[in-house]
Structure formats: C-alpha cells, structure tokens
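FAQ
Q: What does a multi-component entry look like?
A: The components come first, one per line:
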Amino acid sequence: MSSTSTEGLQLGTSPEYSRMHTIIRRVCYVLLFGLVIEGALTFPLLAIWYGVPTLTPAQVCDELQKVMYSDESRTCKSHGLDSPPLGGPAEAQGQDTARDTWRVQPTPLYPRIGFRELVKNKREREARERSAGNNADTEPSKKPAK
Amino acid sequence: MSTKHELATAAADAGPIGYDDHVEQSRQAQRHADKWMISGTILMGTAILGIFGLPLFLRGLFLQRKAQRAGLSVRPIIVTLIGYMVMLDGALNTFGWAVDLFASHTYVSRIFMPTWGNMFDGGYFWHYNELAVGGAGAPGEKAWEVLGIFIVFPMRIAACIGFLQMKRWGHQWMVVTCWTGLLMWMGYVANMTVYADIRFASVVFPVVGWWVYNIFYITPFLSTPYLHTDNREIFSD
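Then the predicted structure of the entire assembly, as tokens:
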C-alpha cells in the first residue's frame, strides 16, 4: 500500500510498517493456536505412543527405564527427600548396563521406540518369564519321577 | 445483563463525551477485556488446559477489538497479542524447566520428562536424573535452565506486565527480553547441534520433530521487528 494515510492503522503503526505489523500479528495468531493445540495434544500423543491405557503411566516409566539402561530388571522408583542433590547415592550409581559409545561426544545406543513398542516389550518379557517359570516348575516335578 | 464493556461501548456510541469520561470508559473496556484474556492465558499456561483457555482469550480479544471500533482508546491488538504471547512463552518454559531443575526426582517428572525426551529430545532421556542435581543430563542443558528460570523468564514476564500496561519501561524491557530470547535460541540450538548424538540418536521424532514442537515458541524474537518499528510514544512514562 503506497498511501501514507493513517486511516485504519493501528495505534503505534506507521504506514510504511503497516504490512510488516499485519504479518507479525497474523503469525502471532498462528503461534497462539499452535501452542494451544500442541499443549492439548502432547500428553495424549505421548500416552498413546508409549502404550497407555494398556500400560499405566508407571508401567511406561518402568519400560522406559529398561530401554534406557538395556536392563530388564530396572524399574521406575521415586525417592524421598534424602535423595540427590540433598543426600544418598546418585541415581543409577553402579549401574553399568547402559549402552553408549563413550567419547567426547557420547552416542547412546539404545533402540528407537516404535509406536506402542513398550507394550510389545512388556508382553514378550512376561512371556519369557512365564516360560522360564514353567521350566523351573516342571524341573522339580520331573525329579520325583526320576 | 449489560456488562461494563457494553455500557462503555454504548456510551461511546451515544455521542460526544468529555475527555475524562472517555478515559474512564476506555479503561473499563480494557480492564473487562483483560479479565477474559488473563483467565485464558492462565489456562493456556498449563498447556494441557489450553484448549479451554483459548476461547476465553479470544473472547477478550474480541471485546477489545469491539471497544477499539467503538472509538475507545484501548491497547492496539498487536501489542496485546505480543504481550500475552511472550508472557505465555515465559510461563510455559518456566514450568517445564522448573520441574526438571527442582522436581526431577518426583514420580510425575520421572514419567513425563523421559517420555517427552524419548519422543523429541534425547537430552531428557539419556541418563536422566544421573547428574548430582538430577534432571536432564545433556551437556549444557542445566546452564540454560538456570539462565532461563532465574534471569530471562522472570524478566520476560515482568516486561510483559509493563508492556501490556503500555508503560515505556515495559516497552524497553520487552526489547531487552526479546533480544535475550534470540540469544537463548541461538545458544541453545548451537549447543543441541554440537551434542546432536545425545539429543537426537534413537529419538522417535528427531530434529524435525523438535522444530515442529518448539517453533511455536518463537514469539519473543518474532516481536523484535515490531518493537523496533512501532511508535514508542504510545507507551507512556
């Protein structure tokens, strides 16, 4: 717009910058809607991707720990006030199962978690545990037979 | 039932009025619109309840626009948008980072932070909570958190209050905090790039996912061109 009229301009906006201010205002609307939609969708997206409601949030946390440390015995625990930095041993102190390439720029080697893969991980682990348990159960029962 | 705003608008339509009446009616109309926008922004600041806050905010914005068209002296829409958006940016970032810095050993934090980190930013997943202070273990992340929580975001929120009140100091501090936003973005992205292996290896939505998630937080430096090209005389001492 080449007109230098201030008619219809917002207070504080001069004619030469009116186009730029209009663009900024419109982008602000986009960002506002973006922030709100993102804020509303983040929790449901995370929950669905990582296995809720098949898994409880606490179980998701457990499964993530197992991936993080490549250790199926890891669980998600909260600690009291005497935990770091106020006291007690550092988290995962002595845990050396996490797989990383250690160098000046470390590279984590845990696998990417696919859509609802934590549910699959849990089921497979439980199946393995059941099968190991069954084997353990059948072993003693065989003994008397011998 | 007539609201204060409607009364003020009706009075403005009624014909010539004195300066003091105009100022008072404008003040009331602005205050009424701000009540809606503040309520909306508080809800949007919680992220998850933002969907309920947005209609309240838009209602306030609509009331302010209506008052402006009725000839009342209310804040320009762009000032309102920038002020509330920058404040929302400061509030949302403070909330997330304060949880990571101070409450990283709580159960909620243990569930949410590494989950979010695994999806968008491995810095919040990789060896999470193993630092002495807990929280994100990515190199440099804690420094940005301290800078943001103690300096930049409080300054930003204070600047927004002055800016929305159309105070000159609010405008000046808005310029400062928006440039600080640019510094933080440049420094933060550079830090993430240097440690990209930690931040993005095996992440569900790496790099592009991070940008899609975070691009909506660019208001502070999107505002900078406005702050340098508006007429500062509308901001009073």
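Q: Is there any commentary attached?
A: Sometimes. For this entry: The mean pLDDT of chain B is 90.
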